[in-house]
Amino acid sequence: YNLSFDRFYVNNLTFGLRSKNPINPYFVTANIQQSVDFVKVNLEANYRFAYKKKGTGLDLRFFVGRFLYNDKASSRYNYNLSGNSDYLYENILLGRNTTDGFLNQQAMITDGGFKNYTTTPSSNKWANAINLKSNLPIKFLGLYADVGLTGYTARNFKGDEVDEVSDATYGFGGTLIVVPNIFEIYFPIILSSDLNQLKYAEKIRFSLNLNMVRPFEMVRKLDF
């Protein structure tokens, strides 16, 4: 047996600002990543507008990402509207080494933060996205909406590099909230054309943020 190892490093520096207001909290993070192949800057802002009912509200997320330098040697570091490749290994992915099946439909709310998979070209230059998520009066049900753009370098018919901007990509659907912000399942309702290449069952995705699991805190917050 021959084993091959892919070794790389990423220097990662993050600055954060978080409010102490328990009703309408917000937090902003600025992130700089540097490696041999790239330097990128990310800005993410999150704000929650609380409804009257306890534990409900409207969540807004804004993401802006820019490459300051990119030698384009590897696409694994590119921006993606439906989440990056987790090259920092910060998340627990049940289907990390799979290419099909339901486990492979786990969504990460990173980069563009789209709940549904998108075939919009990954970006070796920049990405912008807005994500909204809201509760419904019926417990454990919600709605979501995502919209985003990417900028990337492609080659024209002459083989020359040209700058391209993707069409506006969007998605809207319903959420089954099993455990808020930890285990949620996303069912698409309206999708832009580039999201309609899959069968409906393949478009359904779920988020499972096991990194956020704190058993005793979860029990205290349960509202039966």
Distance between the termini: 54 Å
Helix and strand succession? EEEEEEEEEHEH
Overall 3D form: globular
DSSP summary, beta strand count: 10
Mean pLDDT metric:
86
Query: How much of the residues is beta strand, in percent?
Result: 35-45%
Q: Quickly count the helices.
A: 2
Overview of this structure, please?
The mean pLDDT is 86. The chain has helices at 200-203, 215-221; strands at 11-18, 26-34, 38-50, 57-70, 126-135, 141-155, 161-165, 169-179, 183-191, 205-208. It has 224 residues and is mostly beta strands. The protein is built from two helices and ten strands. Strands 1, 2, 3, 4, 5, 6, 7, 8, 9 and 10 form a ten-stranded antiparallel beta sheet that branches. The protein starts with 10 loop residues before the first strand and ends with a helix.
Please provide a brief summary of the model.
The chain is mainly beta.
Write the SSE topology:
Layout: E1 11-18, E2 26-34, E3 38-50, E4 57-70, E5 126-135, E6 141-155, E7 161-165, E8 169-179, E9 183-191, H1 200-203, E10 205-208, H2 215-221
Antiparallel strand pairs: 1-2, 2-3, 3-4, 4-5, 5-6, 6-7, 6-8, 8-9, 9-10
